[in-house]
Amino acid sequence: MNLKRLSILTALFMALLLIAAACGSEEAAQDEEGTEATGDVSEGELEIFSWWTGAGEEAGLLALIELFEEKHPDVKVINAAVAGGAGTNAQAVLASRMQGDDPPGTFQIHGGAALNTGWAAAGKMEPLNDLYEEEGWTEKFPEDLINLVQTDGQIYSVPVNIHRSNVLWYNVAIFEEHGLTAPTTFDEFFDVADQLQAAGVTPLALGDRGEWTATHLLESVLLGTLGADKYNQLWTGDLDFDSAEVREAMENFKQMLAYINEDHAARNWQDAAQMVANGEAAMNVMGDWAAGYFTADLNLEPNKDFGWVAPPETSGLFMVITDTFGLPTGVEDPEVVKDFLRVLGSVEGQDTFNPLKGSIPARVDADVSKYNEYGQKTIQEFNESVLTPTLAHNSAAPAGFVQQINQAVNVFVSSGNVDQFVQSVQLAQDEHIK
Ligand code: GAL
Fold it and tell me: pLDDT (tens digit, 0 to 9) for every residue of the chain, 434 residues total?
């Protein structure tokens, strides 16, 4: 190449560089205008910590992240989910990070005791009252829900959903084949279960490889046996675990456990729900993330492939679980976290996440038409029901109590010893609740 050609090429290259730089600054100027106009275009990194991985868990989260990325293309999202239903593993990982002053940008936390007696009480969360004010959220989330995420007027997180814990799922074809109606009382349940067992069908699927699922079943049995008021008294210490009422509940629980699959200890919640989906078992009590699993993962249709009722004697009662996200103290880029919270707290965010997750929106003004038959019915029932907090998902009682009752429940599943159960849980109640 001769010198003249080289200098022409160099000049051309320089010109291109100048044009590119000019375009770049124009884009930057537009970005700045965009920032001013919407106030919510941010840059940086956002680590989102949850336990939503795999079947039935992650579709909603991935859709929410995609929505956030569309709105904030300059933010690098790190999906730091740790597998394990109900956060069995994630919560331990989170605890060590929080204690080591290495919080993720934001993390999944249940409203109620988990947040209020946990990280908020430890001074590890920033209040979000200003954000609530800016976004008008105090009008948009039900008061009962806001109460689950606040202590002394300080609001510490934003609910992305409402899950219902007390749902009994059943296989429609099995019930039709055997001419059965979904049970609504304990007597009906035992009657239906006897008929199924006599016909060679496993009546109730349980997957208690993760220790929380047996407690999950038990909380519905406690609620059904005690009713809402007495169930709530367990968490204020006004009703003892060593009481006639809890003993009666434990007898019901024991009787139900007589109908579960033999390999329950080898299965997780998805495996148990799948037994109902594919006709290996007739019923399963699980939160409505199972609805997300049935529809988004297994392509089943509500009221056709699977049906649902409230577990025995809990209709009109709604055991609430709310997954929420907050702003830990000391994160590198709090503005980016707030932008994520804005998206997950918006109508669009909630209606993107919840139809896939099986949950209903936490906001009162979401678009009901985006939800399937299960979701629409549940939105209606939430508004008409008496609400109670979940035990298994850390809303009703502090983490120390939940750990101890989980252990006692797991012993009970094999021993069936009511005395031993009520006495050991009484000690836990005395220590953590009274
Ligand atoms: C709950 C959580 C749900 C779902 C479920 C199973 O604790 O609130 O969103 O993830 O665990 O892992």
Answer: 343 443 433 343 333 333 333 333 333 333 333 333 344 556 899 999 999 998 989 999 999 999 999 999 999 999 999 999 999 999 999 999 999 999 999 999 999 999 999 999 999 999 999 999 999 999 999 999 999 999 999 999 999 999 999 999 999 999 999 999 999 999 999 999 999 999 999 999 999 999 899 999 999 999 999 999 999 999 999 999 999 999 999 999 999 999 999 999 999 999 999 999 999 999 999 999 999 999 999 999 999 999 999 999 999 999 999 999 999 999 999 999 999 999 999 999 999 999 999 999 999 999 999 999 999 999 999 999 999 999 999 999 999 999 999 999 999 999 999 999 999 999 999 999 99
| Whether 356 and 231 share a structural domain | no
Give the residue whose CA is nearest to atom 8 of ligand 1: 323
Is 321 a pocket residue for ligand 1 (Cβ < 6 Å)? yes
* 323 C-beta closer than 6 A to ligand 1: yes
- Under 8 Å between Cβ of 106 and 50: no
Q: Is the CB of 58 under 6 A from ligand 1?
A: no
Residue nearest (by alpha carbon) to ligand 1 atom 5: 86
Q: Tell the residue nearest (CA) to atom 2 of ligand 1.
A: 86
Atom of ligand 1 nearest to the CA of 52: 10
Note whether 401 and 287 are same-domain residues. yes
182 Cα to the center of ligand 1, angstroms: 25
Mutate which of 289, 293, 322 for ligand 1? The one with the most ligand atoms within 8 Å of its CB, which is 289
Q: Answer for the pair 206, 383: CB distance below 8 angstroms, yes or no.
A: no
SS3 178: coil
Q: For residue 220, what are the CA distances in angstroms to 103, 264, 287, 415, 420?
A: 34, 18, 10, 20, 21
Q: Is 139 exposed, middle or buried (0-12, 13-18, 19+ CB in 10 A)?
A: exposed
Q: Are residues 260 and 286 in the same domain?
A: yes
CATH of the domain at 292: 3.40.190.10
